[in-house]
Amino acid sequence: MPAERPAAERPLLPEAARRTAAWCVVMLLVAGVAAVFIWLCVVFKTAVTPALLALLGTALLGPLYRRLLRMKVRKSLAAGLTVLAVLVVVGGATYIVVAAIVDTGAQIVDSLRQAASDIARHFGAAGTSLDDLAKNAKRLLERFGGTAASGVISGLSVVGQMLGTAVLALLLVFFFLRDSDRAAGVLRSLAPRSTGDMVEAMGRRAFEAVEGFMRGTTFVALVDAVLIGVGLLVLDVPGAIGLAALVFITAYIPYLGAFLSGAVAVLVALADRGFVIALWVLGVVLAVQVIEGNVLQPVVQSRTVQMHPAVVMLAITAGASVAGVLGMLLAVPLTAAFFGVVGELRTRYGGPGDAS
User: Residue 85 needs a FRET pair 20 to 30 A away by CA distance; which of 10, 113, 125, 246 works?
Assistant: First the structure.
């Protein structure tokens, strides 16, 4: 029988308790670092916002830039042509979307108000609150229009900030594309020598996840907008082009965006075309969502990091609480990057069963 260890040498806590305490310390440290990082991002949001938007743009435009490089185009010229293509495409798309929303925005708002009035007549007090909400929304739009007309300086300030952010993001996209081959060297220079390979691998995995998410989401958004727009045109729903543009824009907010744009389309159809057409619009929206969920999303997610819908919803909620609509747009790609890093760590340090 082995001799018992003296009481002074015995650990105060059993092995399980010590492991739990160690993991708690690690989680607290990670949470503290994440909280400080988020706080710094909020404080320096004027610089962080265009940088994040530029990273997303670089992830989306990377294939076009690499194709130009394979065509023996110089790096600076390839990056400039890519940014120019973005200006042409995004400028044209923005013009189409804004024109469609301006032309049909008032009609959509009136249709929503009419739908709220119809609901109020059928459902009493519950519908009255919806009618009040529609009236308040229209009053808010009218007040905003009056404020924008009278407060020229304030309006120019907002427009100036948006233009400044867009210009800075485009310039950063140019530099990120042109100097993308130096990114690995920068990561290695920031990391200790023994961890250089791991940091580079994690950076590549995170960027690949964001790149796959941006390309996949753009493709899914375009397909959703085209299919739903065609369905609304066939059903002769007013403001079909504007509603299709709304579907495309909100598709960058997974799950929640599709619900909001689909609800607006159904309410507009209910107000102008009646209950039967509204049911047809609901069927079109649900059919497109079924195609997206069972065909498009599996194909897209097979090329990037797979995330559970609950994780996506929590990420969107957290992003909205930190940075509003911008946080909702950035939350999911940043979460995809995080899961890409976690996947790389599991590949390197996981057990035999995790490597598969």
Answer: 246
Is 134:112 a contact under the CB 8 Å cutoff? Answer: yes
- Cβ atoms of 266 and 243 closer than 8 Å: no
Q: Could you tell me the pLDDT band of residue 303, with boundaries at 50, 70 and 90?
A: low
Task: Give the 3-state DSSP-derived string for the chain, with helices as H, strands as E and coil as C.
Answer: CCCCCCHHHCCCCCHHHHHHHHHHHHHHHHHHHHHHHHHHHHHCHHHHHHHHHHHHHHHHHHHHHHHHHHCCCCHHHHHHHHHHHHHHHHHHHHHHHHHHHHHHHHHHHHHHHHHHHHHHHHHCHHHHHHHHHHHHHHHHHHHHHHHHHHCHHHHHHHHHHHHHHHHHHHHHHHHHHHCHHHHHHHHHHHCCHHHHHHHHHHHHHHHHHHHHHHHHHHHHHHHHHHHHHHHHHHCCCCCHHHHHHHHHHHCCCCCHHHHHHHHHHHHHHHHHHCHHHHHHHHHHHHHHHHHHHHHHHHHHHCCCCCCCHHHHHHHHHHHHHHHHHHHHHHHHHHHHHHHHHHHHHHHHHCCCCCCC
Candidates 335, 250, 174; CA nearest to 166 is 174
Q: Which two tokens stand for residue 242?
A: 């504007």
The model's pLDDT over 52-102, given as tens digits with 9 standing for 90+, comes to 888 888 888 888 888 888 888 888 888 888 888 878 877 776 676 666 666
Q: Name the one residue in this structure whose structure tokens are 């950035």.
A: 330
* pTM as predicted: 0.65
- b/e map 141-175, b = 16+ CB within 10 Å: eeeeeeeeeeeeeeeeeeeeeeeebeebbbebbbe
For 171-194, the pLDDT digits (tens) are: 888 888 888 777 777 777 777 777
Query: How far apart are the C-alpha atoms of 174 and 61, rounded to whole Å?
Result: 10
Name residues whose C-beta falls within 8 Å of residue 135's C-beta, 6 or more positions apart in sequence.
113
Q: How far is it, in rounded angstroms, from Cα 38 to Cα 331?
A: 12
4 phi and psi, to 5 degrees? -70, 145
Q: In whole angstroms, what is the distance from residue 262 CA to residue 284 CA?
A: 9
